[in-house]
Specification:
The structure holds three protein chains of three kinds. In chain A, about 35% of the residues lie in helices and about 15% in strands. By secondary structure, chain A is of the alpha+beta class. Chain C is built from eleven helices and 15 strands. Chain C starts with 5 loop residues before the first strand and ends with a strand. The model of chain C has no long low-confidence stretch (mean pLDDT about 95). Classes of the chains: A alpha+beta, B alpha+beta, C alpha+beta. Chains A and B meet through helix 2, helix 3, helix 4 and helix 5 of A and helix 1 and helix 16 of B.
Chain lengths: ~160, ~775, ~300
């Protein structure tokens, strides 16, 4: 089945199977390895990508559903060499350890900030409680998201 | 070394791999591809214990797209057994499957879908056998044996004296004694005893085990593996395939978490064997449920008896610990030794009798997990310490302080003296939690302390290369699994060589390139690998100074390094200039070498610990008595680290350790029924989420520069996890009066304990 | 990884039903896929045909009327954000906000949730207090059925193989209704869920406004969500001020009504006791709201909507 979509701002035309999962199409078809396969059951969030701005578990999302839609992966967050405020905040806050959850955390936060540019800590937790991390204990991740939100309206901008 | 202020060590610099991780460019094993790569899948036993009478892979082999299909009987060209303590684990089950999930057959195919389909074409006949699923069942007289004979010993010197109990499921015993505990307890004023249980839990690294294995035409093997000790994997494979170490190369990209689950060979042997059969590179990646069937923490039952004098001094500790190491020993015997060795905790105690054993059961093999046997012991001892404090009518903080080992005091003959100030950690933790301040009526506070040795003897080697332009490459085999070791090693090299941090590159571990490092575990990378890097950098420094001295006609003692240059009284040469003069051209490099190998000593475990890891945890909790739900409102961890090379990454590591500790304290346990694991998926195995983090969480460090690591550092990362369960349980007891002896403290468990609490006489305080 | 299947995307309910009739057991209805695709990945379901209902007109709509009709393909997120839902029955949106996690809410549908009849469904519990009916369409026409007849047991509904769940129809509570929803549990799926509604009749008494109609539903504990008739009867005619005193009896009645089993979500006796606890707590919250007070107390491992 042919699908036409925009991935990280770039129009793409892909030939996929009905049963192809978006995660595999992104990782293997487009070589975008940032989204990871972990629990494979929509629990952990390591596979999170944004489809039309909404966070989805790419491991359990048919690629054909992305037809005529815009997909954002972690590779599309930065603007060229210029990091997205969330990425910069994660680096500065020490919110990255092994990095396996990082892409999912960043994209989920990005989606949240697009809806709510000044979230409370509780609102951040409401979003991020569906994204697991085993390394950090979450504290610095939440701090980084709040810092990025505080630092500017640009955090949720874009697609 | 001159006592100049440190420039980069001790600074909270962003980690050197942060950029690649936040942009999605960091590569993990399953991100790697090779031309011709095929995908492997594993067929696993559905039974906890069964005879395997027939495995027929013919139909699987015939499926188009399948390039290899193997049963245990097909692995005839190499030794199919591996294991670091006992070589008891076959790559694929032979006549018997010993746990639910044990690999019985494996296939490699052009894509995952074909490999999955091929598994369904494999026919296996099982004859179920009686399984022993718990310590009690495995230790019962006449219990079925998980292993019939005694397998050969593995590759570690400290485990060459394995002591099984023949005819039983006990595969190793450890005993340590001093003084006479029977007499001491008889004469003690207060004796308390109890037994505590620690559940089987899984590491749940978000990246499950993964390997990419490829043989070349010359018969050399290369693996990209998600492993914490490439050198251990290498020696294992060299033994299995009877190939020289030099013909096996293990490369380690980023790990998506480890926590001990990726120590020692796990899936690497099977991947290598499949690759050999297929004649193509094979990627074998486990799923999270398969990780639950690969390794877990050793569960335990620990009985402790402690005796005190009326004045509060600890006189005797008797400990009897059984560890469930699952169906294959993995590193279980050392976990048992290590855990038991510090069963007495950070306290001075003249009379000690410690007995422990590693017990086989028909469950997922138990191996290394952050804490390495000590959480299980600390859960018991630190809980009992509070029971004793109540009986002695003493404040638990005060009683601990009274009995702490002092800085410089001996822990055991031949071993390193205590190299930190426990009372300082305790004091800071108590102050931070507000121990002596009034607390809200609905809150309880508890503390716990820990002491742990690091693996010894051990070896770390490193190479530092100073290039013609003054930039530096560090070659060391400490594995980056999120703890920040790559950054710390870079900081050490940058500090010694006075270059900017971003001029230092730490390459990924690669046994063909980066020299020997025993393991990335045991909190040892900063202290041991770091020392090797420091020594290698100092070697380069000496060469730089000598070269500059020669060119400048000065004595070495008149020169020093500063800002990428060798500086004398009135002359200055950049490193580039120094090298250009030395080599007579623009090229060449200086190579420095560091070898840290303290060797065997008379210490009880065979080597003297390079440092003692010591920490204190303090918790403040609320308990919803109607539901039993415990919430940790505040938690303070104080770790005595000597020097925090990178305070930012260290704090992050310890915050993570506390929350991971809250996992087994409040939420996590692997549940079995009728021989089956009921909750081997994240849908029903509950790890901490973002809203489980205590609202107030502080991780602090005592830094007295008293460690043997670089710049006075010691190890860290396990100390934050170990005190969590007893600190929380002690807080629950002080608030509610109930004492729990089994983890996790799920709402239901606490609810049940509260219900059986007698209103007049609380269970204990 | 999924086994291959053919994806059908009918653009009318008739077309969809005809496909289901023709394909029989080989077909599965597909909307968000959050339950279906998961079961397919685990190999527990192996349909060779998926019939996507997202392009059927009306299936994605929320329509006002005497009943509020939520199309089967409306996502939890759309329910959460819908101004219509907020206006007619705000608690439904508040509960939708807490289903699973944000990714599942973005993609998963109300219809899919009910049609799967997972015994741990938050929404099914709440909907039991809303005289909810499901609209089913098939080649034989259209029919409506009360929700508690539609959900027969765990993963079992009254939907015929060639029938589609087209919409869910809620009877919003009358004005002067005060409700609370609480779910409790440690795992991804809750151990229990409680929904209570107190509809006042406008009569002020010495103890406060009088309760004309009380509804208490308990879910996740039994194979299907249940209403606690005994407790509802006891509260009818009582005043808001009496709720505090009546809450204990109501909780006990609920505990007696349910028949939990031991499982990973808790032992039977624990669940029974928790049902009593959370029915009490939910009633207290609803009563406080009736008095114009928004309670701030929160309970560990519990979500309050």
């Amino acid at each position: 089945m042919k699908i036409r979509l925009v991935v990280n701002g770039r129009p793409r035309e892909l030939d996929v199977e009905a049963h192809s999962l978006l995660l595999d199409v992104l990782r293997d078809g487009l070589d975008l390895k940032g989204a990871k396969r972990s629990c494979d059951t929509q629990v952990c969030g390591a596979c999170t990508v944004l489809v039309d701005g909404l966070a989805v578990s790419a491991c359990t999302y048919l690629a054909v559903e992305a037809d005529e839609r815009a997909v954002l992966t972690v590779e599309g967050l930065a603007d060229g060499e210029s990091l997205h405020p969330l990425q910069r905040a994660f680096v500065e806050a020490g919110a990255v350890q092994c990095g396996f959850c990082t892409s999912g955390m960043l994209l989920t936060a990005r989606a949240m900030l697009a809806e709510n540019a000044r979230p409370s800590r509780g609102e951040v937790l409401h979003y991020l409680r569906g994204s697991l991390c085993r390394c950090t204990g979450y504290r610095k991740i939440v701090d980084a998201v709040l810092a990025a939100a505080a630092n500017g309206p640009a955090a949720g901008n874009g697609q | 070394m001159s006592a100049r202020p440190l420039r980069v060590v001790g600074r909270p610099v962003p980690r050197v791999d942060a950029l690649e991780k936040v942009t999605g460019r960091a590569r993990y094993v399953t991100d790697l591809t090779m031309p011709g790569m095929v995908h492997a899948k594993v067929l696993r036993s559905p039974y906890a214990h069964a005879r395997v009478t027939r495995v027929d892979v013919t139909r699987a082999r015939a499926l188009p797209g399948v390039v290899a299909a193997l049963a245990g009987a097909d692995v005839t060209w190499c030794d199919p057994y591996y294991g670091p303590a006992y070589r008891d684990r076959p790559v694929l089950a032979l006549d018997v499957a010993r746990y639910e999930g044990e690999p019985v057959a494996a296939v490699a195919a052009v894509d995952e879908a074909t490999a999955e389909a091929a598994l369904e074409l494999i026919d296996v006949d099982y004859e179920p056998l009686t399984a022993v699923m718990t310590l009690e069942e495995a230790l019962a007289p006449g219990a079925p044996l998980v292993h019939a004979g005694q397998p050969p010993a593995g590759h570690f010197a400290d485990l060459s004296t394995l002591r099984p109990k023949p005819g039983t499921n006990v595969c190793h015993q450890f005993h340590f004694a001093r003084g006479n505990t029977a007499n001491a307890l008889a004469g003690a004023d207060v004796v308390v005893e109890d037994a505590y249980r620690f559940p089987p839990v899984q590491h749940v690294a978000l990246e499950a085990h993964a390997v990419l294995a490829a043989w070349d035409e010359s018969g050399a093997l290369t693996l990209w593996a998600s492993t914490q000790n490439p050198y251990s994997v290498r020696v294992e494979l060299a033994k299995m395939f009877d190939v020289p170490l030099s013909r096996i190369r293990v490369v380690v990209p980023h790990l998506g978490g480890g926590f001990g689950s990726k120590t020692y060979a796990k899936l690497e042997p099977l991947a290598a064997i499949l690759a050999h059969t297929a004649g193509r590179p094979v990627r074998l990646a486990a799923s999270i449920p398969e990780a639950f069937q690969t390794v877990r923490r050793c569960a335990s039952r620990v009985a402790v008896r402690v005796g005190f004098r009326r004045d509060g001094s600890l006189v005797a500790v008797e400990c009897d610990a059984s560890y469930d190491v699952g169906a294959y020993a993995d590193i279980g015997p050392r976990v048992v030794q290590k855990g038991t060795y510090t069963a007495t905790g950070p306290y001075r105690v003249p009379h000690v009798t410690l007995d422990s054993c590693a017990v086989y059961t028909n469950t997922t093999p138990g191996g290394a997990f952050r804490g390495f046997g000590v959480p299980q012991l600390a859960w018991a001892l630190e809980s009992l310490f509070d029971v004793a404090a109540a009986r002695l009518d003493r404040d638990p903080v005060d009683l601990r302080r009274q009995n702490f080992l002092a800085h410089g005091e001996e822990f055991a003959p031949g071993d390193t003296p205590i190299d930190g100030k426990l009372e300082e950690s305790l004091g800071r933790a108590a102050e931070a939690i507000g121990w002596t301040q009034a607390r809200a009526a609905d809150r309880g506070r508890g503390v716990a302390a820990m002491l742990k040795a690091s693996v010894a003897p051990s070896v770390s080697e490193a190479i530092v290369r100073l290039h013609a332009d003054g930039s530096v490459t560090v070659l060391a085999s400490a594995v980056e699994m999120g703890q920040g070791t790559r950054t710390v090693l870079a900081q050490i090299a940058a500090e010694v060589l006075c270059v900017p941090l971003d001029h230092v590159t730490v390459v990924q571990p690669d046994t063909a390139v980066t020299p020997y490092d025993q393991t990335t575990s045991s909190s040892r990378s900063t202290a041991m690998t770091g020392r090797a890097v420091q020594a290698a950098a100092e070697d380069v420094r000496e060469q730089l100074l000598a070269a500059a001295a020669q060119s400048l006609g000065l004595a070495v003692r008149e020169l020093e390094l500063a800002d990428g240059a060798v500086v004398g009284p009135s002359r200055r040469l950049t490193y580039a200039e120094t090298l250009a003069l030395k080599f007579g051209m623009s090229g060449g490099e200086l190579i420095g070498r560091g070898v840290i190998a303290p060797g065997r000593t008379a210490a009880p475990l065979g080597g003297s610990t390079p440092f003692w890891e010591m920490a204190v945890g303090a918790a403040e909790v609320t308990v919803d008595e109607e539901t039993g739900a415990v919430r940790v409102e505040r938690y303070v961890s104080v770790a005595d680290v000597g020097r925090a090379i990178n305070p930012l990454t260290l704090e992050g590591q310890d915050e993570g350790g506390v929350v991971q500790g809250l996992g087994h304290t409040l939420l996590e346990e692997m549940l079995y029924a009728d021989g089956h694991l009921l909750n081997g998926t994240l849908l029903v195995y509950r790890v901490p989420r973002a809203d489980d983090t205590p609202a107030e969480l502080e991780c602090r460090f005592v830094e007295n520069a008293d460690g043997s690591g670089p710049f006075g550092s010691k190890g860290a990362g396990e100390g934050s996890l170990i005190p969590v369960s007893p600190a929380v349980a002690n807080a629950v007891t002080r608030l509610t009066g109930v004492r729990l002896r089994e983890l996790p403290l799920t709402p239901e468990r606490v609810w049940r304990a509260l219900r059986s609490r007698s209103p007049q006489r609380p269970d204990s305080r | 990884m999924l086994r291959p299947f053919t994806l059908h995307r009918p653009t009318s309910a008739d077309e969809a039903c005809a496909l289901l009739a023709g394909l029989g057991d080989d077909a599965a209805v597909y909307a968000g896929g959050t339950e279906l695709l998961l079961l397919m990945k685990l190999g527990l379901l192996r349909p060779r045909h998926l019939v996507d209902v997202k392009r059927i007109p009306g299936f994605g709509d929320i329509v006002d009327g005497p009943r509020l009709a939520i199309g089967a393909a409306v996502t939890h997120r759309a329910v959460e954000q819908s101004p219509l839902v907020r206006a007619r029955c705000a608690l439904v949106g508040a509960v939708a906000r807490h289903v699973a996690n944000v990714r599942v809410r973005n993609v998963g549908t109300v219809g899919g949730n009910l049609a799967f009849a997972d015994p741990h469904s938050d929404l099914a519990t709440l909907f039991l207090t809303l005289d909810t009916a499901v609209e089913l369409v098939s080649p034989r026409g259209r029919r409506e059925m009360p929700l508690d007849e539609f959900v027969r047991g765990p993963w079992e509904t009254a939907r015929a193989a060639d029938e589609l769940l087209a919409s869910v129809r809620l009877a919003p509570w009358p004005s002067r209704s005060y409700a609370a929803y609480v779910k409790f549990g440690v795992h991804e799926r809750p151990t229990l869920a409680v929904a209570v509604v107190l509809a006042l009749d406008g009569t002020a008494t010495h103890g406060g406004d009088r309760i004309r109609d009380a509804r208490i539903a308990v879910g996740c504990v039994d194979p299907r969500p249940v209403r606690i008739g005994a407790a509802e009867a006891a509260l009818t005619g009582a005043s808001i001020g009496d709720v505090e005193a009546a809450a204990r009896a109501a909780g006990d009645a609920a505990a007696e009504r349910v028949d939990p089993a031991d499982d990973l979500y808790g032992s039977a006796d624990y669940k029974r006791d928790m049902v009593a606890v959370f029915v009490r707590r939910a009633l207290r919250i609803a009563a406080a709201r009736a008095r114009g007070v928004e309670p701030t107390e929160r309970f560990p491992h519990a979500v309050v909507a």
